[in-house]
C-alpha cells in the first residue's frame, strides 16, 4: 500500500518588514503541533503511524503555495490542513488543488485575525465549488498559548482520520469472486459507485479459478500443512444440525467432497482465495508468476450460493477468518470480505474497519423483537438499553470471530481490538468462544462449516449500510447502539427459531425522539448490515460528506 499522507500548510501574512517575521514562529509551532497530534494518535490499517508532510517554510503568497503544493503531489498527499494564527491572503495562499481533501484551522485569538482568514477562505472555497472543513475553536486564546484546545484537537483528528480512510481506499481494488448471489441486488456490483465515489478499481474472478488453482496445486503446500494443523488444534466442531434429518436424495447426491476431506478442501480454498486477493511471493518461486501478484485487494466478496455451495463446501470459514484480526499466522489487519458477494455491505464493512481498525461484522438484519413478543415466548422481560426491543443480527454461517467478545481489555472485560493489540490469549479466547458446526445441508448441499457464537457482553457498536437508490446514487445508514447480553436460556429459545449454527449478536439501537427501534428495522435499506466496535457515527457522517454520499438515516446526537 502506498501510504496516503496529510500535508500541513502553515499560512502567514506575507508583508515583510516586521509583520511576517513576527508571526513565523507562532505559525510554524501551530503546524508542528498539528503534525505531532495526528502522527502520535492515528494509524494506518497496517498498524504504522499516519504520516504528515510539513516543509520548513510558511506560505505567504501564491509562489510559496505553489512550491509547497508541488511537493505534496510527489508525496501522495491526500488531504491538507491549512493552519494560521493571523490574516493571510485568501485565494493566494489556500489549497486550490481539485485532488485533495481540505481543512482550515484559524486560530481564535484577538491579537491577530486568524478567524477572519478562516472565514474569508471558507467563503472562497464555497465560491469556487471546492468542499472544505472549517476548524474553529470555542475559546479565545492568547497568542503565546501554543497548546491545541481540546475541541480543536477533536476536529483535527476527525478530519485526519476520515481523510486517511478515503486515501487508503483509492486505487485499491474490490475483488468479486463469482457474481450475483440468489438475486441479492447488492451482489450485482455498481461499478460507478466504487470507481466514482470511492476511487477504487474492480476485479472480476470466476469461482472456477479456485478449482483451477486447487487442481493444479497453485498454493504453498508448506503453509497448507500449517493451516490444517491450526484448524485441527483450534477450530472446535459444534453441533451437526443434519443428524436425524431425512434429507432429500438431491441433497445427499450433491455433496462431492467426503466428510473426512472437507476441512482439507476448506483449507485449500482459503489459501487460494487469500492469494487471489493479495498475492503470494511463494507462488512465483513455484513458477506461477502471474498468480503470485494478486489483485491489490482492500475488499472483496464471495458469491458462494448457490453455484458453489450446491455441490462444494461453503465459504464460511475463510469469510470469517478474513474479516477477523488474526489467522493461522497470528495477528493481521481485518479484511472487508462479504458473504454472498454483497458489494454494498462490503463497502459498509470497509468504511467501519478503516475508521476503527477493528474487525467488521457482517450480519443479516434478521428480526425486530419487541418486548411483548420476547415476554410471550420466553417469559423474559427486557430491561436496560434493550427495554424497547432488540434487533437480531445473525449471518448465515460467517462473521468475524472478534464479534464473540473473546478479546479482553485491561480490566478483563470483553472488547474488540485493533490487530496490533491482539494478544495470544485474545486469539485463543476468540477461537474457544467459536464452534464450527457442520453446515445445514438443506441450505449448503456441498457441506462446509459455519461459525457459531453468541456475543455475551454489552459492547458499543455502530451498524452501517450502504444503499444505491436509482437516480440518486449511494446513501448511507448509521445506527449506534449496544450489544445486549440475553440470558443463555432465552437466547437459545429465540435462536432456535432460526438456524442455531450461525453467529448471533443481539443489538439494542439507541432511540431518539424521531427514531425508535421498530422504525430502524422497518426502514433499513437491505437484508444485510455491517457493525464495528465503538460509536463512530460522527466519523461516518464526516466520511460520507467527503465522499459526497448523503446520509439517509442516523441516530447520532
Could you explain the architecture of this structure?
The chain is α/β, with parallel strands linked by helices. The chain has two domains: 165 residues, 3-Layer(aba) Sandwich (Rossmann fold), CATH 3.40.50.1070; 382 residues, Alpha-Beta Barrel (L-fucose Isomerase, Chain A, domain 3), CATH 3.20.14. The protein is 36% helix and 21% strand. It has a six-stranded antiparallel β-barrel. The longest helix is centred in the N-terminal third of the chain and has 23 residues. It is globular. The two termini are 35 Å apart. The mean pLDDT is 96.
**What name does CATH use for the topology of the largest domain?**
L-fucose Isomerase, Chain A, domain 3
Helix content: 25-40%
- Gross morphology is globular
In CATH terms, the superfamily of the largest domain is L-fucose/L-arabinose isomerase, C-terminal
Which percent band covers the strand fraction? Answer: 15-25%
Rg computed from alpha carbons, rounded to a whole number of angstroms: 26 Å
Report a brief summary of the structure.
With 557 residues, the chain is an alpha/beta fold. It has a 6-stranded antiparallel β-barrel. Strands 2-1-3-4-5 form a 5-stranded parallel β-sheet, with helices on both faces. Strands 7-6-9-12 form a 4-stranded parallel β-sheet, with helices on both faces.
Amino acid at each position: 500500500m502506498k501510504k496516503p499522507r496529510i500535508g500541513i500548510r502553515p499560512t502567514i501574512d506575507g508583508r515583510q518588514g516586521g509583520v511576517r517575521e513576527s508571526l513565523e514562529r507562532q505559525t510554524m509551532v501551530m503546524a508542528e503541533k498539528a503534525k505531532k497530534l495526528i502522527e502520535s494518535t492515528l494509524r494506518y490499517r497496517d498498524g504504522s503511524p499516519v504520516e504528515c508532510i510539513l516543509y520548513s517554510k510558511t506560505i505567504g503568497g501564491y509562489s510559496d503555495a505553489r512550491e509547497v503544493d508541488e511537493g505534496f503531489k510527489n508525496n501522495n498527499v491526500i488531504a491538507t490542513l491549512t493552519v494560521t494564527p493571523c490574516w493571510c491572503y485568501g485565494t493566494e495562499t489556500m489549497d486550490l488543488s481539485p485532488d485533495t481533501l481540505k481543512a482550515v484551522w484559524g486560530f481564535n485569538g484577538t491579537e491577530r485575525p486568524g478567524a477572519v482568514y478562516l472565514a474569508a477562505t471558507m467563503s472562497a472555497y464555497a465560491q469556487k465549488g471546492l468542499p472544505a472543513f472549517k476548524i474553529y475553536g470555542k475559546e479565545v486564546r492568547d497568542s503565546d498559548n501554543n497548546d491545541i484546545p481540546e475541541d480543536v484537537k477533536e476536529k483535527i483528528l476527525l478530519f485526519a482520520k476520515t481523510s486517511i480512510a478515503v486515501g487508503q481506499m483509492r486505487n485499491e481494488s474490490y475483488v468479486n469472486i463469482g457474481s450475483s448471489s440468489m438475486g441479492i441486488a447488492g451482489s450485482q456490483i455498481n461499478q460507478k459507485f466504487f470507481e466514482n465515489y470511492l476511487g477504487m478499481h474492480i476485479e472480476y474472478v470466476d469461482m472456477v479459478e479456485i478449482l483451477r488453482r486447487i487442481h493444479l496445486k497453485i498454493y504453498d503446500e508448506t503453509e497448507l500443512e500449517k493451516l490444517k494443523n491450526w484448524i485441527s488444534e483450534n477450530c472446535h466442531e459444534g453441533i451437526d444440525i443434519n443428524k436425524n434429518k431425512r434429507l432429500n436424495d438431491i441433497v445427499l447426491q450433491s455433496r462431492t467432497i467426503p466428510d473426512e476431506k472437507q476441512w482439507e478442501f476448506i483449507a485449500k480454498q482459503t489459501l487460494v482465495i487469500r492469494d487471489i486477493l493479495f498475492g503470494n511471493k511463494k507462488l512465483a518461486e513455484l513458477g506461477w508468476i502471474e498468480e503470485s501478484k494478486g489483485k491489490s485487494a482492500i475488499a472483496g466478496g464471495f458469491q458462494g450460493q448457490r453455484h458453489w455451495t450446491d455441490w462444494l463446501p461453503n465459504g464460511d470459514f475463510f469469510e470469517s477468518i478474513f474479516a477477523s484480526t488474526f489467522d493461522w499466522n497470528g495477528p493481521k489487519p481485518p479484511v472487508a470480505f462479504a458473504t454472498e458477494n454483497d458489494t454494498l455491505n462490503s463497502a459498509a464493512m470497509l468504511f467501519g474497519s478503516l475508521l476503527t481498525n477493528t474487525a467488521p461484522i457482517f450480519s443479516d438484519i434478521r428480526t425486530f423483537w419487541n418486548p411483548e413478543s420476547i415476554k410471550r415466548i420466553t417469559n423474559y422481560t427486557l430491561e436496560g438499553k434493550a427495554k424497547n426491543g432488540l434487533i437480531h443480527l445473525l449471518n448465515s454461517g460467517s462473521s468475524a470471530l472478534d464479534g464473540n467478545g473473546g478479546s479482553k481489555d485491561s480490566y478483563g472485560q470483553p472488547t474488540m481490538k485493533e490487530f496490533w493489540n491482539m494478544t495470544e490469549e485474545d486469539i485463543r479466547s476468540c477461537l474457544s468462544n467459536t464452534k464450527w458446526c457442520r453446515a445445514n445441508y438443506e441450505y449448503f448441499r456441498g457441506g462446509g462449516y459455519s461459525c457459531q457464537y453468541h456475543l455475551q457482553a454489552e459492547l458499543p457498536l455502530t451498524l452501517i449500510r450502504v444503499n444505491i437508490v436509482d437516480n440518486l446514487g449511494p446513501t448511507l445508514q448509521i445506527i449506534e447502539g449496544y450489544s445486549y447480553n440475553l440470558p443463555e436460556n432465552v437466547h437459545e429459545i429465540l435462536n432456535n427459531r432460526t438456524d442455531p449454527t450461525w453467529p448471533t449478536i443481539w443489538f439494542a439501537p439507541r432511540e431518539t425522539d424521531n427514531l425508535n427501534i421498530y422504525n430502524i428495522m422497518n426502514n433499513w435499506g437491505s437484508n444485510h448490515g455491517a457493525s464495528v466496535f465503538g460509536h463512530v457515527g460522527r466519523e461516518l457522517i464526516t466520511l460520507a460528506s467527503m465522499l459526497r454520499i448523503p446520509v439517509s438515516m442516523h441516530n447520532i446526537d
